[in-house]
Amino acid sequence: MTKEEGATRRDFLKLAGTAAPAAAVAVATSAGTAEAAEPDLTSDRMQDTAHTRAYFASAKF
C-alpha cells in the first residue's frame, strides 16, 4: 500500500485529542463572570438582564 499525501484519519484524531483539552483549559482559566447590563426600556429588542440570564441557565439541558 502507498501512503497518500495530506492528513490522515489518525492525524485528525491526534489533533482532536490534544485540541479539546486545550480548549477546556482556556475556558476554565478565563477571567471572572460577565455582569448583566441595565435594561434599556426604550428598546423593543430582548434585553440582557439577570432575569434573562437566569432563564437561559435554567433552560439548558
Topology record:
Elements: H1 9-28, H2 50-59
Describe the structure in your own words.
The chain is elongated, with a radius of gyration of 21 Å. Helices cover about 50% and strands about 0% of the residues. The protein has about 60 residues and is mainly alpha-helical. The termini are far apart.
Uncertain spans, ≥5 residues at pLDDT below 50? none
Largest sheet: none
Q: Give me the Rg, rounded.
A: 21 Å
Number of helices: 2
Q: What portion of residues belong to β-strands?
A: under 5%
Distance between the amino and carboxyl termini: 47 Å
Give, in order, the helices and strands.
Answer: HH
Look at the helices and sheets and give the structural class: mainly alpha
Helix proportion range: 40-55%
Given the C-alpha coordinates, what overall shape results? elongated
- How many β-strands, per DSSP? 0
* Average pLDDT over all residues: 76
Short summary:
With 61 residues, the chain is an all-alpha fold. The protein is 49% helix and 0% strand. The model has no long low-confidence stretch (mean pLDDT 76).
Task: Give a quick set of tags describing it.
mainly alpha; 49% helix; 61 residues; elongated; 2 helices; single chain
